[in-house]
Design goal:
46% helix; mainly alpha; elongated
């Protein structure tokens, strides 16, 4: 349990982030525009696009001088699963993406506040249609996260 002084310091840190323009993101990130998955070929394209977008999103930090960038420091939350090439590797990549997204979205100081994403327990044995639906839903969640930004787009 944290002490009262820890709580006060955490509030001061949050106030600084708000006053310095670091809300969830300083600027919106490019949304994923890959079409929804409907079959295995489109699923492979979408899941690999999700991984690529997330991979460029998390390390994009705010420059201390210019104020340009998306995040405070995010020291981890990198997808390590290889690119998907079949249904089994799609499942592996989606599980890695889910884990890293949940941790990244709730990371402070990477974000001003924790973003609560709907819990999604990915079923490893789900049918192709279920996996496609899951990938499509994950795309919507990521796009919502990517677009959560200040209107100014600058953290200065």
């Amino acid at each position: 349990m944290s002490s009262p002084s820890d709580a006060i310091n955490a509030l001061r840190g949050d106030m600084f982030r708000v006053l310095s323009g670091q809300a969830l993101h300083a600027a919106a990130d490019a949304p994923i525009t890959t079409p929804s998955a409907t079959d295995l070929p489109s699923l492979l394209v979408l899941v690999n696009a999700i991984a690529g977008s997330f991979g460029t999103h998390t390390p994009n930090t705010i420059d201390a001088v210019s104020g340009v960038g998306l995040h405070g420091i995010d020291s981890g939350h990198r997808v390590t699963a290889p690119a998907a090439s079949d249904l089994a590797s799609v499942r592996t990549l989606l599980n890695d993406l889910e884990t890293q997204l949940q941790q990244h979205a709730s990371s402070v100081p990477a974000h001003f506040s924790r973003q609560e994403l709907s819990a999604s327990y990915f079923e490893m044995s789900g049918s192709l249609a279920e996996v496609c639906a899951h990938a499509n839903a994950l795309t919507e969640q990521l796009n919502g996260h990517f677009l959560s930004a200040l209107a100014s787009g600058v953290a200065a």
